Amino acid sequence: MNEHSKLLSLRAAISQIDSSSNLDEVLRQLIGTVCKNTGWTMGSIMAIDVEADFGQVMVRYDPTLIAAALPDQWTLRTSPALIALKRNEPVFIEDAQSAEAFPGYQRDSQDRDYRTVLTMPMTCHDAAGCPMVLSVISREVKARDPEELLLLETILHLGSNAVERAHRMKAQRDNTQRLQQTLEAHRKLLGHVLDDTSEPTLTEAVEALLHAPVILVDFSGNQIFAGRSPDPRRLDDEDWQRAVLDTFARPITAAARQMGQRSGPSDRLVQLADHGGRYAFVGRMEPLFLDGTLAGALVVCFAPDDTPALDPLLLESACLALRVQIARTHSRFSSDTHALSDVLREIVEAKWRNATEVTQRAMSLGFDLAVPHHLAVLDFADPGLMQSGLIVEVRRILTRLTRAEGDRSLVAGYAHRILWLHPVPSAARRERLESLQEALMVELKASFPDAPLVVTGGVFVGLQPFADLWTRYGRLLDIGHNFGIKGLLRISDSSSLEMLFSALSASDVRSYIADSIGQIVQHDQAHHTDYFETLSAYLRSGCRLKPCADALGLHVSTLRYRLDRMKEVFGVVADTPERRFDLELAIRLYLIARTV
């Protein structure tokens, strides 16, 4: 081949190789151009999977092939392709039919009647990243021609560049398509949000977008929504949703609050397992913020052995739609809560002028003053907590506790206190409230480092009774704060001590207790003795030795010894009605200050 023919062949090769941006077409044009312009009969381009130890034919050129089935895979041990790649140079087999070093080509050349084989490495890769080689075959024995080899290397270089360009263009097309799909999915999700779609429906839409089960945590709406099960073989959808609400709700919300203060993908995995070890899942958590405040979280769930590949753009689109949805919920909740708080402020401060107007406003907010309501007041004694989403957290706890019976509670804030108003239409429901109050205290202690003082137990019907009950609650809250009480304080309908506490200062009451029985209490605490209980039982029994000893499970002589010790060590005697009254009153005051 003279120089003019080589240039013409090279020009034809460039023209044919550049005629398409489709990868498969580029490869077909490349192998066809090589064979047509360099005198080789047929050829193929293979991708070499070194780890799997085989070469995969990607495209083949053979004008003499007549409907024959040829192998598409070659074992690398029987092929020169691996040698060409390792040495990064062509492998020339002058007569394949006698090439015992390459038994695969030897058998194939004898079956298909070809002789010379040239295998050349390419400087490109397939879509999986495997290196590629080109093999050309001649039916006649050909001598090694350095000039022809140089022409082939030039065409291969141009072809490799065309392959890489086809890869880039395909990646661009794929990226453009992905962006279009993301925009369309984003449009649909925002359409769901703007159409005021329910959270369960939006959760389903997010699952369809991400192709993975999800959990939506909405702190503003105090709700958790679970979609389909990450492992239907272990839990069906209904069981999974129940498990999320009953078992995973607390660890998910706790993890969301912690992760809201951290960053990085390694920090965003949460383990979800039941206490019995029957099932375990992993969640990829994305905190959702509104104006820098944690408002919720999106949890993408999967089995421990099945980590999904999440598209960052689709994930961000889902998070944006959920933030908008939560913002709408937060706006509605804030508006309703503020309106209810304004009405309650007028009532508890007795500032209303028109009782009918206040009653109607309360009714419009779901607060029917004609229905018996149970009142509980949570006092955190820290005004700063009210600015950090405290009402939202308390409302979330109450929603979960009352979910089984239908939540009709109202939650509102006043100063640094939270009011919980719950309709109580029957005596049976009042008994149910006792267990709810205990459960509420457990939840509050688990959710907040400093448990609040909670006053409960009062029921009212009507505007003025509500205001009167609030005044009484206020006295009890003052008593609790004066004595540093935390926990549950139940109001007593018949207790006159409540009025005594409110009439006396806290320092007066403390001094009275300390002067009467303070030494006994301190001694019991320091030495684990039972003098206080002995004195209490002695006074309850009317200062009679035998009934008191029986109540304490003691011998009369042992009881007499304890009474003598109290007289000797503490100077405590109950030999007159006045002294007995002083001791009984001190004991009552101490027990209230200690246990309420």
Question: What are the SSEs and their pairings?
Answer:
Elements: H1 3-17, H2 23-38, E1 42-49, E2 54-61, E3 73-75, H3 81-87, E4 91-93, H4 103-112, E5 116-125, E6 131-138, H5 146-194, H6 199-210, E7 214-218, E8 223-226, H7 237-259, E9 269-273, E10 280-290, E11 293-302, H8 312-348, H9 355-364, E12 373-379, H10 390-401, E13 410-414, E14 417-423, H11 427-447, E15 453-460, H12 463-482, E16 487-490, H13 497-503, H14 506-527, H15 531-540, H16 545-552, H17 556-570, H18 577-595
Parallel strand pairs: 15-16
Antiparallel strand pairs: 1-2, 1-6, 2-3, 4-5, 5-6, 7-8, 7-11, 9-10, 10-11, 12-14, 12-15, 13-14
CATH superfamily of the largest domain: GAF domain
Oligomer: single chain
Mind summarizing the main beta sheet?
6 strands, antiparallel
Helix content: 40-55%
**What is the terminal separation in angstroms?**
108 Å
CATH architectural designation of the largest domain: 2-Layer Sandwich
Total strand count, please? 16
Summed up, the domain count is 4
Mean pLDDT: 79
CATH class of the largest domain: Alpha Beta
Largest sheet strand order: 3-2-1-6-5-4
Strand content: 15-25%
CATH fold call of the largest domain: Beta-Lactamase
Give the class from helix and strand content and strand pairing: alpha+beta
Gyration radius over CA:
42 Å
The parts where pLDDT drops under 50 for at least 5 residues are none
Mass-distribution shape: elongated
| Tally of separate helices | 18
